[in-house]
Design goal:
This protein has three domains: 66 residues, SH3 type barrels (Roll); 158 residues, Glutaredoxin (3-Layer(aba) Sandwich); 101 residues, no CATH class. 42% of the residues lie in helices and 15% in strands. It contains 14 helices and ten strands. The strands form two sheets. The protein has a five-stranded antiparallel sheet, with no helix packed on it. A five-stranded mixed sheet has the order 6-7-8-10-9, sandwiched between helices. Helix 2 crosses helix 6 and helix 11 packs across helix 12. The longest helix is centred in the middle third of the chain and has 24 residues. It is globular, with a radius of gyration of 21 Å.
Length: 387
Amino acid sequence: MNSPLAHRRLTFALGGLLALALPCAASAVEHILFSNDGRPRQLTGKVVVEDSVGSLLLETNDGAMWPIMADDIRRRKSDEAPLVPLDKEQLAERLLKEMGPGFQVHKSKNYVVVYNTTRTYAEWTSSLLERLQRGFISYWKKRGCDVEPPEAPLAVLVFNNKASYSRHSRAEFGEAMDNAIGYYSFQTNRIVMYDLTGSQELRRQNTKRGTLHDITNLLSQPAAEPLVATIVHEATHQISYNCGLQTRYNFSPVWLSEGLAVYFETPDLSNRRGGGAIGKVNYTRWERFRKNVHAGKEPKLIQMVANDDLIRNPRTAVDTYASAWAWNYFLIKWHPDEYVAYLKTLADKPQLVMDDEDTRIADFRKHFGESFEELEKEFYRRMSRIK
């Protein structure tokens, strides 16, 4: 799941929002002093979106995006210099300063990993993410998507244990992430996780964690599969929102975003090119989906398309994630051109504008046909043949 950034600061003045997305290279840099949870904060960045009363979405040079309410702004001035993203060395320096003593940095081609666990684990993490990114970009390029590797390095924080991870995540989300092993943050544009090899369940089976070979063996165990899948899931969100496939803060339907990430949870991690098994059946999700269908609990497609209630409700979320996987799998496999066109429609939508249910339904019908019932018939017929 991508992180549910506090909606109290997300959806400002939606009714009167003027979606004025500004080209990054041509945008003047803004220096803004504002009140952040009662404390003054100074940020420098480019305005991505601004509404009619002065509330805005500000992108800073580390890739973070800050929703700032007009009433919270204390001082604002601009200059003509363009916003230049931090390079790997600059991003590493900033993250190390933020995280404090005990943290180190490992830089790979596309990632800056800041960690206080072992360097070996940080190297394994970056290797996993690099393979996933190569596979992800290649996969969508072959399907006609206008995607490119991120221009700026992507940030990853790895803590040595769950306790330190939880303390960090609570500062941003309260206790919402305590039961997750990692998350992707819309606001900071970072993946945050902790070292899986410290998991008690895994350590009972293998106490060796000193080399990359040991880590690979440890994390290839069946007990590790859902843990690694979570890292891949969150990394998929990060790549998707930084390669041009999706757009941060434009409120794409959650069943699509989460189902897309679940679709990529099953890569072949031994494949040096990454993504060797992208698109194979996610049997963990498939089994839950199949049981729900047999039990008559599977929701109607229009329920997921119209709003995000089912997937945001803790009582129905796990089942709806399985449904989201199934629908993304079906549409990508049997309606790929329409799926890609639908993704583009959603990515092109203005940021911080929330579509109503009628618009969401109309967008879906534009690409997949007017009849939800006919599409569901095909869906259940094809999915019933999965072995």
